[in-house]
Specification:
15 strands; 15-stranded mixed beta sheet; mainly beta
C-alpha cells in the first residue's frame, strides 16, 4: 500500500451504502491535536489537526507529514483545509483544499460548494460540476460530522470525492478502552462497511470526559500491513471569535475561499 494513501485515509474512512442523515450529538469544540502514524511499531509520520469556529463559520485543517526514519528517504506532506458555515449543529462546507507535496512536486485539488446545492472544482487537472443537495461533505468535513454523531450504531454520509458524489458508511462494533500516550481512554470503535475483505479500516472515538467524540485511534489493514494512528496530545480551546479580516474579496465576504 502506498503510504500516502494511508495518510489520506488517516481519518477519512471510505464505504458505500444508502445515505441516512443523523445528528446524534454536538460538534466537537475547537481543538488542536497531534497523531502518530506507525507501522509494526515504527513511527512513520504524524497528523496535525486543528478546528476553529468564529462568527458562525468553521475552519478545519489537517497536515500529514513523514517523520522518523522514513523522513530520511522521503519528505511527503499532505495539507487539507475545509471551510464553511455552522448552523443549528449542521455543517455546510463552502470550500475544500487538498494539497500533496512529494519530491518537489505538488498535486492540488479544490472544491467549492454554493448555497444552491452545486459543487464544482478540479482534481488531477479535470474540472467538474455536480449536484450536491442537502447535507453533503468534503473529505475533511465529513470527519466533523462523524465526531458530532459519535454514539450512533450506524452512520452514513454523502461526500464529494474525485468529482463524484460518494457514500461513506460506518458501523459500531462496540466499546473498548485504549492505552494511549495521553492516558487510558474509553472509546467506541467504528468499522468501515466494505464489499471486500481485502482491506479493513476502523477507528475509535472517545466517549465521555474532556476528549468526548474526538478520534483517538485508527487502523488500516491491507496486503499484510497494518498501519496505526494514535492520539499523542490534544489541546481543547474556548470558542473565541477571531479578529475580522482587514481585506475580503467582494465575491467572498466571509473569507471562505482563501486558504490562510
Amino acid at each position: 500500500m502506498d503510504l500516502s494513501n494511508f495518510f489520506r485515509l488517516a481519518l477519512i474512512l471510505l464505504a458505500l451504502a444508502p445515505w441516512t442523515p443523523s445528528f446524534a450529538g454536538n460538534l466537537p469544540p475547537p481543538f488542536e491535536a497531534v497523531y502518530r502514524v506507525e507501522l509494526a511499531g515504527l513511527s512513520l509520520g504524524e497528523v496535525l489537526i486543528s478546528l476553529e469556529y468564529a462568527n458562525g463559520r468553521y475552519v478545519y485543517k489537517k497536515t500529514t507529514r513523514t517523520r522518523g526514519l522514513l523522513s530520511f528517504f522521503r519528505n511527503d506532506t499532505i495539507r487539507e483545509v475545509s471551510k464553511g458555515i455552522v448552523s443549528d449543529n449542521r455543517i455546510h462546507p463552502r470550500s475544500y483544499l487538498y494539497e500533496y507535496r512529494k519530491r518537489g512536486k505538488t498535486r492540488r485539488s479544490e472544491i467549492h460548494f454554493n448555497a444552491s446545492g452545486k459543487a464544482s472544482g478540479h482534481e488531477h487537472g479535470r474540472e467538474f460540476t455536480l449536484d450536491a443537495p442537502g447535507d453533503v461533505y468534503d473529505r475533511a468535513s465529513v470527519e466533523l460530522a462523524l465526531m458530532r454523531d459519535a454514539g450512533a450504531g450506524a452512520l452514513a454520509y454523502e461526500v464529494v470525492e474525485k468529482g463524484k458524489l460518494m457514500r461513506y458508511r460506518f458501523k459500531s462494533v462496540g466499546d473498548k478502552a485504549m492505552d494511549l500516550p495521553i492516558g487510558r481512554v474509553g472509546c467506541r470503535e467504528y468499522e468501515v462497511v466494505r464489499s471486500t475483505t481485502k482491506r479493513s479500516t476502523s477507528m475509535c472515538l472517545a466517549e465521555g470526559g474532556e476528549y468526548a467524540s474526538l478520534p483517538v485511534w485508527a487502523t488500516h489493514n491491507e496486503r499484510g500491513s497494518s498501519f496505526k494512528m494514535l492520539l499523542e496530545r490534544v489541546t481543547l480551546r474556548p470558542r473565541l471569535a477571531r479578529p475580522a479580516r482587514k481585506k475580503t474579496d467582494a465575491g467572498d465576504p466571509q473569507g471562505l475561499m482563501s486558504w490562510d
